[in-house]
Amino acid sequence: MTQFSKTTSIRASGVVGSGHPAVLNTWNVEGGLGVKPGQVLMKSAGTVTVWDGTTTVIPDPDDGTVTLPQFAIATTEQLAGDTSVNVLEHGCYLFSRVTVGDSPVTTPQAELLSANGLFAENVW
Questions:
Q1: Under 8 Å between Cβ of 74 and 93
Q2: Which of 17, 27, 73, 89 could be stapled to 121 by a disulfide with Cβ–Cβ 3.0 to 4.6 Å?
Q3: Rounded CA separation 67/116 (Å)
């Protein structure tokens, strides 16, 4: 029996940590957003922004419940003219290489990211 295999390398800019399998994806973003590796991104109502660290909830007017937006961490830089960026949607990240806005991640922010499946390496 013949077996075929193909290996594909994905560079994650040193943001992805070990300890939990990573789920990498591509998010559509507005051109000119200027996303840099390690920035936390927030997707709410289909719009992606660089997260400024404030907790945002999405109210459901029908039943009064709230949900959190989806978070991910950019693993590549958004180049001029690009309308997408590679992100870590689930898994471990290197705490020292991730920022919220232009600041290091705080403990409450790290806890919120953990609730969304993004875990600081060696913490999960």
A1: no
A2: 17
A3: 11
